[in-house]
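FAQ: What does the model actually see?

It sees only this:
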Amino acid sequence: MRVLTGYPERLPDLKTVYLGRSPESPDITSYVLQSVRFHQEYALLKLKGVDNREQADRLRQRLVMVSIDDAVPLDEGEVYLYQLIGMAVETEDGQVLGTVTDVLETGANDVYIVDSPQYGEVLIPVTEETILKMNADSRRITVRLPDGLLPNA
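And it is asked to produce this:
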């Protein structure tokens, strides 16, 4: 699996992981985690009951999730990456840009990938200057876009 957590060293301590198409998916299934080993930026998981390649192939393109009880506690104002997916993004003057579909974790700063009906795919750098407000309760992110980020804007 591609490792998205900032704390990969905690993976071998987990007893159970959950696989599903999304955190809200009705088909989330729990698996006992038997072992973990790391290879480059990936973690190779051995799940109890998944004993051959065919069984493992059926689990491709699933998110590997942990119980919120096993997650690293957040500081005030922080959100988990999975909570960002589907959040509405709007400019400080109220123009709705679209929704977050993914987060790219880069060396300098994260980048929100926003699906915009008007502009297509918009890449928004996550900086103090750009992200003005994030409200997890209303699932809205307010941004101040750098000049030239949007086409014809």
